[in-house]
Specification:
Elements (H helix, E strand, L loop, with lengths): L1 H6 L8 H12 L8 H18 L14 H7 L3 E7 L21 E7 H14 L2 H9 L7 H6 L1 H10 L5 H10 L11 H26 L6 H11 L4 H9 L3 H15 L4 H4 L2 H11 L6 H4 L1 H12 L14 H36 L4 H16 L4 H15 L5 H22 L8 H27 L3 H4 L6 H23 L1
Antiparallel strand pairs: 1-2
Helix pairs in contact: 2-3, 6-9, 8-10, 11-13, 13-15, 17-18, 18-19, 19-20, 20-22, 21-22, 21-24
Length: 493
């Protein structure tokens, strides 16, 4: 209360006549077009002092506000406000009497809210922020604090309901109409303004990110990836990205990163067709034909790249081009089968983990182990090596020193099975005995971890990091291997 009187150069308790004279004198020195902040403070102090002098002052008075229904009606009806008439002091005019200085002169202005909001929206969309700021400060009706307060709700509704404006423009409008401070006590439109400002900032950040990828400072491959995601589709560019290893996964990673960082605008800014294509072509868990054909599609190009090695390849007496076609077909079929099987295995493991709670590593190992046993019917030596490798890979989470114990358990187990198997099988069945020995060696760490986890009530993931009983199993099998000559001599006698 005291600050308002001090600003007018008065003592608390001055009457309305003194307040009007003091305001008129200071109004000549404080012009709204030169110092709008000081003018607004002076106008606030003047009205505050008048209210106090009239007995209507209140320490917590916050001024005039439009309610929701009044704000809607204000958009369709002109607003009438008292606006101080600012005279040009540079013009020559006769000296006024003291009676003319008793109160400032006001003019009645009819303000069309609807036209103002329409023009404000148009200028906010097309004009730069400095030009919009100059236009707002040049509107004399907005010198009235009563009018600016009455426009709070219509302007807030405009910013909240229309498309997001540039962040700098939104901040300017919110600051000009005192809408930049949003608290829990404000209504939903005020909170909506904060959301709109966040959306505007997100939209601007996305455009800046896209523009960064267009600069020469970025790698040519990164610029190519961004152009692919933005569209339109270009088949030569897409074919190049498919043929180069790792580029499909990079395209998918970039698309997912943009969609995650800018969820409200990236979906509209990026090409829906491009994003959907790379989701299907680069997703490791997808069985879509686009992904399955990536590896076979690369085979002929890689083969042609090694054309210098063509004379070294076996042709079987056929034309080199015919041999090349045969080799490409075999390689493409092999790659297609491998990609299909690995993808199907991964999807099955995820399904069993989600539905049954099965350990994914056990599913992978079991499927590979079973497939290798089937393949041993045609390629026994390769199958034996792969069975042993599967068991060793299962034990990789253990410490490196424990790998020696695992290897000893697997080697001694294979020897024991093969040695004692020779005592009961014919010499013509040694191939099958070798496969059984290799399967046993590979299964030792897997079966051990299953039994140990069940007995100790721990998870397989924890058991794979422990040595468990493998040391004792290795010692027992070594002892059996040492006892094999004695057993062999007894059975021979």
């Amino acid at each position: 209360m005291r600050d308002a009187f001090i600003l007018l150069g008065l003592v608390p308790g001055a009457d309305a006549s003194a307040i009007k004279r003091a305001y008129a004198q200071r109004l000549r020195k404080t012009r709204p077009d030169e110092d709008p902040v000081a003018f607004q403070a002076l106008n606030e102090a003047y009205r505050r002092c008048l209210e106090i002098a009239a007995g209507r002052g209140d320490e917590d008075d916050e001024g005039y506000h439009l309610h929701a229904d009044e704000a809607e009606a204000a958009a369709d009806a002109p607003f009438v406000a008292d606006v101080p008439e600012v005279r040009d002091e540079t013009a020559t005019a006769p000296v006024a009497d003291d009676k003319d200085d008793e109160a400032p002169q006001f003019i009645r202005v009819r303000f069309d809210v609807h036209d103002f909001l329409r023009e404000l929206h148009e200028r906010a969309q097309h004009d730069p922020a400095p030009a919009l700021d100059a236009w707002l400060r040049g509107l004399e009706p907005l010198y009235s604090l009563e009018l600016k307060r009455a426009l709070h709700e219509p302007v807030a509704a405009l910013l909240a309901d229309e498309e997001p404006l540039p962040p700098q423009t939104m901040r300017l409008i919110m600051q000009f109409f005192d809408l930049d401070e949003v608290s829990q006590g404000d209504d939903w439109r005020r909170r909506r303004l904060a959301e709109r400002l966040h959306l505007a900032q997100e939209s601007l950040a996305l455009e800046q990110e896209i523009a960064r990828y267009a600069t020469p400072r970025e790698k040519a491959v990164d610029r190519l990836l961004m152009r692919e995601l933005l569209g339109p589709r270009h088949w030569l560019r897409r074919l190049f990205l498919l043929l180069v290893p790792l580029l499909p996964s990079r395209a998918l990673h970039l698309a997912r990163t943009l969609l995650a960082d800018y969820p409200n605008f990236a979906g509209e800014r990026l090409s829906e067709e491009s994003v959907r294509y790379w989701e299907r072509a680069a997703d490791r868990d997808s069985l879509d034909w686009r992904r399955l054909m990536v590896a076979p599609l690369r085979v002929p190009f890689y083969y042609l790249g090694l054309i210098g090695l063509l004379p070294m390849l076996p042709t079987g007496g056929v034309h080199p081009l015919q041999a090349m076609a045969t080799h490409c077909t075999v390689l493409a079929t092999t790659l297609l089968t491998f990609v299909s099987l690995t993808t199907a295995t991964r999807r099955l493991a995820e399904h069993l983990e989600r539905e049954r709670g099965w350990y994914p590593g056990l599913v992978y190992t079991g499927l590979w182990f079973t497939g290798t046993l089937i393949a041993s019917l045609w390629w026994p030596n390769a199958a034996i090596a792969l069975l042993v490798a599967i068991g060793y890979v299962w034990s990789l989470p253990r410490a490196w020193i424990e790998h020696l114990v695992v290897a000893a358990a697997m080697a001694s187990g294979a020897f024991v099975v093969y040695a004692f198997g020779r005592l009961v099988v014919d010499s013509g069945q040694t191939d099958a005995l070798e496969i059984v020995s290799g399967a046993y060696a590979g299964a030792i760490p897997i079966l051990h971890d299953l039994i140990y986890a069940r007995f100790k009530r721990t998870t397989l993931d924890e058991t794979r990091r422990q040595l468990g009983w493998l040391g004792k199993i290795a010692i027992a099998q070594v002892l059996l291997a040492m006892a094999w000559p004695l057993c062999f001599s007894l059975l021979k006698d």
